[in-house]
Amino acid sequence: MDDPTLSLNGDPNIGVYARVFDDIAFVPIDAPSEFKSKIAEYLEVEVIETFIQGSSVIGLLLTGNSNGFVVSGLIQDSELDLLQEYGDVLLLGEEMNAAGNVILTNDSFAVVHPDMSSEMRKMVGEFLKVPTIPMSFAGVGTVGMTCACTNAGILLPARSAPEEISAMEEAIPLEDFPVGTGSVNMGSNLIGTGLLINNKGYLAGNTTTGFELGRIEDVFGFL
Q1: Is residue 222 one of the residues assigned to a domain?
Q2: 156 domain-assigned
Q3: Is pLDDT of 153 > 90?
Q4: Which residues have C-beta within 8 Å of that of residue 198, sequence separation ≥ 6?
């Protein structure tokens, strides 16, 4: 990779504005063409332009795995129609509807906000076809923006407590699944806000240091 970093109009918090899957990425309609083309190139995805709730903060409001998308129930009809062209969609109710903020998922498990109701946890788990694990890291429950994961590994914030890391390692229903810690954008523990990643590649916010990039590549097997 020449330069696996990116910003959106100078903002390094690229994970707030886009949501990447293995074959597709959803990006804001008004994002610059350079932003869209770099995501397409580095992550080997089809880039789909949309808003969610009429907003550009797609990463906060949308998540999912190969079994479908989970999105805010406040999504507009036309936006929902677009999502449904690419997969099944679960709408979250008023409680914790910022799906990308409160759910971190791959094809084997989902980590969810510790305050999510058992009913919602069950609904999310059944839809995504994975066990749900209520947790927080570094004392923060918005796991979708605090962490990042793929089918190859999970990156927790550097300030995670040892007991949080141990609990995550024990809860993952996989053997030899890499659990690492790191940061983005010069020390930010909100990893999901500054990282777009799938099983093919990654892009980090443009203030992410070389050391931070190295941790990402190590944990997710891109070395």
Answers
A1: no
A2: yes
A3: yes
A4: 20, 21, 22, 43, 45, 150
Q: What is the dihedral of CA 139, 6, 109, 138, to 10 degrees?
A: -10
- Determine if the pTM surpasses 0.90: yes
149 Cα distance to chain centroid: 7
CATH code for position 162: 3.75.10.10
Q: What is the pLDDT of residues 67-98, one digit of tens each?
A: 999 999 999 999 999 999 999 999 998 778 99
Residue with token string 């944990």: 219
In tens, the pLDDT along 8-42 reads: 999 999 999 999 999 999 999 999 999 999 999 99
- Provide the residue range defining the domain that includes 57: 5-217
Cα 79 to Cα 39: distance, rounded to the nearest angstrom = 21
Asked whether residue 160 is assigned to any structural domain, the reply reads yes
Per-residue pLDDT, 223: 80
**Residue 86 counted as domain residue:** yes
Number of domain units in the chain = 1
